[in-house]
Amino acid sequence: MNGLLDFFKVVSDEMRLRILILLSKEELCGCEICAILNLPQPKVSQHLAKLRNLGFVQDTRQGKWVFYSLRIEDPVMKMILETIAGNTQQYPNLSQDIRRLAKLNHAGCQGEINE
How many domains, in total, are found in the chain? Predict the structure, then answer.
């Protein structure tokens, strides 16, 4: 039950929910998440650390970059995220994030958005 309560605490924070929705689409480098959300690296790192500490994301180092991926095994939590991710058009910030993700230039992991 504690895992479910932690999940709802996490998704009640807008930035953490936005990060989870992005990671439900694909693995991303921290700098790419910063570019999509238009937030400074320290702020994104704090959110990612919280998500990682609770076991909702995992990180993988590749050289000087850290890549994050979703790590949610619970079927109820997965269904909730999939439902939100499938209906982002109803939520302006999530919809914008998904559009920015689609325009992301992954080359060299600079986190550049091709606008």
Answer: 1
Provide the CATH number for the domain around residue 70: 1.10.10.10
Phi, psi of 61 (to 5 degrees): -85, 135
The answer to whether 81 touches 72, Cβ cutoff 8 Å, is yes
Q: At what angle do helices 14-25 and 2-11 cross, to 10 degrees?
A: 100
| Residue 111 domain-assigned (yes or no) | no
Residue 41 to residue 31: CA distance in whole angstroms? 7
pLDDT at 34 over 70: yes
10 Å Cβ neighbour count for 115? 6
67-112 pLDDT, tens digit each: 999 999 999 999 999 999 999 999 999 999 999 999 887 655 655 5
